[in-house]
Structures are given as C-alpha cells and as structure tokens.
Amino acid sequence: MWSLLLLLMSLIAVLKTEELIQGGKTHQTSEYEDGGVTYGSNRAIDGNLETCAHSLKQSNSWWNIDLLGLYEISEIIIYDVDHQHVDMTDSSIYIGNSTETNGLANSRCTKITNFNKGKKNTFKCDEGSMLGRYVTIYSKGNRVLILCEVWINGTRKADPGLMLIKENKTWVDALSYCRTLNMHLAYISDIEVQAKAAFESTQSNSPFVWLGLRYTCTLDFWFWINGHSLDYTNWSTHTEKECDMSAAMETTGDHLWYSKPDNETFNFFCTE
Ligand SMILES: [Ca+2]
Question: What spacing in Å lies between the alpha carbon of 45 and ligand 1's midpoint?
Fold first, then answer.
C-alpha cells in the first residue's frame, strides 16, 4: 500500500515538471490580411482554436517562437482548422538555440508526414526530447502556412541565469523589458558568470550589451540595480563617471565593461 502511494507520488512529481510552456515571442515569414484582420503569428498561441496565424502564399514559409528560456522539449502539438488551404504535409519542426536563418540553422526535430485537419496532432522529435529556446515550423513549397494553435510541452532547464535579448533598447527600456519577464537586468557576480556572459554576448547583434550596473552622479558610485555589492568588475580603462551613464559589456575582444550614455541602444541580458 505504502509503496503504491510512493510510486504515485513520484509519478505526480515527474508529470508536474513536464508542462505546457506558456508565453514566448512569435514571428512568421509574412502576414496574410483580409477584411481588416491581420493574421499575425501570435494567433497560434492565443489559446483560441478559431484564430489562426496565416502567412502569404510563398515559397518556404516559416513560423517560430522564442520561448525566452532554455527548455527540454518533449512534444509539439498543432491544431489546424479543416480548410482546403491548410496543408502541413512535408513541413518540418526545428528546435535549438540559434536564430540564424530564422531558426532553420537548428536541428530538425521531425518531419510532418501525417496531419489530421480539425484535430490536435502531437509530434515528438525523432531522436527524443530536444534542448532549445527556439521552435520553428517550416513549410516547404509554394503555399500558405496556417497554424491555428501550437502547444509546446517541456521542462525548463536551469541555465547560467542569463538570457540574451537580441533587441536594441535604451538602458531604461531594457530594464523595463526584463521586469515584464519577472527578471532583472544582468548581474555579473563573479568571473564564472562573466565568462558565461562573454560567451553568450558573441551571439548578440550589437557591439555592446547592457548590464544592470548604473552610475549615480549625485553619490559618485556604481551600483548593481538588484542591490548586490560590486565585488567583481571587469572595467576597461576608458570608464567615465558622468550622469546618466550605465555599464555595457563589449561583445568582442576581452568583453570589458564600458560606461555608456543610457540613451544608447544595445542588446541586453535579463537574469533571474
Ligand atoms: Ca489561435
């Protein structure tokens, strides 16, 4: 009796860690418009089976999602309406951490051979669960890509705690962006985190990435906005102490920290 109970409890624990990944930022090749309605990419994750993301008719359409974190993805479920223009045959699903060629540089999870319109179709990767932040659905051939709802199941992986956001924003806007994710602008506590940040920063598309480090000219000191003390630093020799300055790490070379006017726009790191 007790062993059965323990077995049930461990089963529940396993099931609990594997869950529907909520949220994320979606994109698609192009957006079909009709009667004042834009069939945008986010319609595939709005929880409504009747609203669909819909590309224009073109060669090699894709839809993708940035899950805003690293996940071990176990399955992808796709629902489409039973409509003559829906054709998922020979489409493919890609998973990985690269944004190159809109996610198509990642490894292929699986190719869609059977697809039932008007039903939920569950796909597992050919090689089992796959690690990744980006999921791309790629439709080969000259046709429209229609996705009414996409669900992705997986487990959030513990990562270095740094998430690179490849959007150029001012320091204040970057700070707000991280807060909307319930995160902070990056905090570099030691040489190990610096090494991870340096590695990640090479994936950015700006010459610097913002850190959560700010200068107060009234009190004349630098401080981490999460309140931690400034024990570790990696300053360049060209650090100015001026009002409205924040710290940014260079994305090449020795990944030194520079003071930058906070109205400049760079990619940035969010951290938990
Ligand atoms: Ca929908």
Answer: 6
- Domain contains 172: yes
Whole-Å CA distances, 58 to 31, 61, 90, 117? 11, 6, 15, 21
Q: Checking DSSP bridges between strand 149-156 and strand 58-79, what pairing results, if any?
A: antiparallel
From the CA of 224, how far away is ligand 1's center (Å)?
Answer: 41
CATH of the domain at 205: 3.10.100.10
Indicate yes or no: pTM above 0.85. Answer: no
From 14-23, 25-34, 89-98, 120-129, the region with the lowest mean pLDDT: 14-23
Question: Would you say residue 7 lies in a domain?
Answer: no
Domain that holds residue 233: 162-271
Provide the number of structural domains found in the chain: 2
Task: Say how far residue 185 (Cα) sits from the centre of its chain.
Answer: 16
Cα 39 to averaged position of ligand 1 atoms, centre (Å): 10
Report the separation in Å between the CA atom of 42 and the middle of ligand 1, taken as the mean of its atom positions: 8
- What distance in angstroms lies between residue 258's CA and the mean position of ligand 1's atoms? 44
Inside any domain, residue 8: no
Q: Mean of the per-residue pLDDT values for the chain?
A: 89
pLDDT in tens, 105-125: 889 999 999 999 999 999 999
Residues around the ion ligand 1 (C-beta < 5 A): 43, 46, 48, 51, 149
CB 248 within 8 A of CB 186: no
